[in-house]
Amino acid sequence: MSLSRRDLLKGVLASSALALWPKNAVTAMLAPLGAGPRKLVLVDLKGGNDGLNTVVPHGLAGGSYLTEFRPTIGVNSAAALPLAAGIGLHPNMTGLKTHFDAGRLAIVQGVHYPEPSFSHEFSERVWQTGDPSALSTAGWLGRHLATQPPPTTPDTVSVSGTSSLLVTGSGGFTPAFKQLESFTFPVDSWHQSDGGNRRAAFTAIASSLTGGGGDLAAMADTSLGLLDLIDLFATVPEFNHVGLYPDTYVAKSFQLVARLLAADVGMRSFYIPMGGFDTHADQNLDDDHGQRLGRVSALIDALYTDLASFGLAQDTLFIVFSEFGRTVYENGSGGTDHGTVNPVLLLGDAVQGGLVNEHPSMEPADLDEHGELPAQVDLRDVFGGVINDWLGGDAAAVFPGHALTPLPLLS
């Protein structure tokens, strides 16, 4: 079968989710940046994590109602890992508890946005864009990146099969891949020895199209940039992990972040989605949800340990979030349904550790019209604080029309 020029270009672009971006920009932005640039690891618990079984307010206002609201799935006070009087962490999250005790973990409680939706798609868009209307087509991190000069702006990797709305609108690019070994020039499996000739032909075709303007020229320019990216990733050495990663497929995503950061190839921001948190059933302590929380804790702790071994932990901030929480009341299937507010976790050496604010009251009279916890903190205040105090940006430009309420997140 013969391939047209357009088909050949599409084949290479399909090997990675990458926005159109010129070759020279790819090369410049991937140049090693040296020690010290701040890194960001965003962990998205997709599906709507149950915040009340993550950070458990068993002894706070209305906390006594937990056993009434959640007679079979609630985490009791004896099992919860103590954070402060009347509040604890899920017992499977021992790794994060260690960081809390060391003053590296901050917990922002009751986070959401005005007029919350119970829709996965709508709420995901709000959390990714920071726009409560969900109408924005650019992510909050993407809008921040667009305000920064390219050579010093942290570029983002989506450690998954698809790019994230979170960084859309940056004017840059976001490669999306799960492992470096898959980020290669495509070859015919029946004629692998012919790979060099295929690449030479591809380079010649793409080079001949770059000056013509239009979509095909942009595709050709990006394709040549992809070759630089492929060559760069081929130089990334294996990493000797010292962190103890759980035996789960998603561990490869966290290990990839460690490998890229240790190699210092210029990648600074990483988005890691973790699925399976839409727990409408089987949420009991030793069932699915508890196991997932244990993996989240262990994975973050392992990656932090790896980064610390390379002297990179002090420059890295982890943020753990989810599109919404779960209902205060358990359902008839041993689970919970779509709720509203949720805690956001921030971990790093520069974090002001502890409970950032009070937990929403569990008193029945204080619940909203849907029987859900009232919001305490606007998500834009959390991400805005990160933009201002960690990324050195301007939250007012990223969230126009929102009056930022400062939070004591970073020292």
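The above is record 1. Record 2 follows with the same two-line structure.
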Amino acid sequence: GESDEVEDEIEDEEDEAAPVQRRRRKFVYGKDKYKWCLETPETRGRRSDSLRLHLPAAEGNSLNASNPYESWNVLFTDEMLELILKWTNAEIERHNIDNNANNAEAATFAPLSINELKAFIGLLYYQGVNKNNHLNLTEMWSNEFGSNLYRTVMSEKRF
């Protein structure tokens, strides 16, 4: 058990509004020589900034969004999507030139449209929401494990 020895300790407290005060605090030592205070510490009037509650709220352009699609467009602006599309299509073109793509590959590696890009990003969201990140592509598009949504939006090869 704990030692019955109680030690008094004088503690100085500083407060901006009051002069320096001295008060006695009682302590008990455990058998492992850990020092336990017998009184709860006094609470101070100020709260740390890190303890203040900050609730999330819409700001800027997101205040004008009235549906999920408009909210998504705040995150992915048309300019951003056009830039992604430009460099994705440049990479597709480079791949086709480097690999002398035949007609069968040409359909798979055709330039991407803005709608296909949005569909691709949407499938990534869907995969995350449904926690399908453990599935490989074949399983995602399979009739047994996958969702009809994947097969409806685009082919596995196009994805």
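The chain is about 40% helix and 15% strand.
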